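To: structure desk
From: M.T.
Subject: fold request, one chain
Message: Could you run this one when you get a chance? Sequence is below, nothing fancy, just the single chain.
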Amino acid sequence: MGRTELASSAEDGARALFASVERLKALPDHMEVLPGAFSGSVCGCSLSGKPTSTIGFEKRFNKAFRIADESEFVAKMVADIPPPPLEAAANRARNAGLEIVA
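Reply: Done. Structure tokens follow.
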């Protein structure tokens, strides 16, 4: 995948994440949420080490929840994407039900 396709893919991912965050904002503050991403992805930027959270906590401390403009959100999300952990590809394959050959 070339640099242009990677940037386009990251922007598409950031736009989808913005839509998800907007839906999450409508949930009640006491609603518990579990992480679905990790460092090295657009949605893995600035993750905390907490294994669970609540919508109220995220509204208060998650920078992504405080950005109301989609263009600003996308720019911030794709500005500094950390490299994925070494096991990321294997984890995605397992999640997709694919056999891992070592």
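Reply (cont.): The helical segments are 3-25, 55-61, 70-79, 88-95. Let me know if you need anything else for the meeting.
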